[in-house]
Amino acid sequence: MPGMQSRARRSYEKVQATSLSTRTLEGFECQGLLITASVRDETRQGDQLIQETLEEWVALKLSTPLLTQMTGGSSGIKAEHVVRLSHIIEGEPDSALFRIPSGFRLIDPKDAPKYGFAVPRQ
Q1: Which pLDDT tens digit goes with each residue over 43-78?
Q2: Which residue segment(s) compose the domain that 51 sits in?
Q3: Alpha-carbon distance 122 to 113, whole Å?
Q4: pTM above 0.90, yes or no
Q5: Distance CA 78, CA 76 (A)
Q6: What pairs with residue 22 in β-bridges?
Q7: Is residue 27 in a domain?
């Protein structure tokens, strides 16, 4: 659209995945994976590649990542993003978490003023 700044166009020049050892996180055995990539930001001048990494540790029993770390950056700014699950409790959640609170009722979404999955009784 006219007047809109274009989003960065990126191309991945070299991507490599490496299986890491296992380690224990939050009491669960996890398998690690490291992905490294050389990325070219086509909106920047010059021929410099940006190095990005993704390290992920997946709990084998849960098939869920317990730790994900991403590093990289562009325009001279280094960035790191970390997501870690902790205080994990196995089992079924309490069914009370899925009950409609008293004083609320289900309505047809088309009747809700905005995204109204539940509204107070009047």
Answers
A1: 666 667 788 999 999 999 999 999 999 998 766 678
A2: 10-86
A3: 14
A4: no
A5: 6
A6: 31
A7: yes
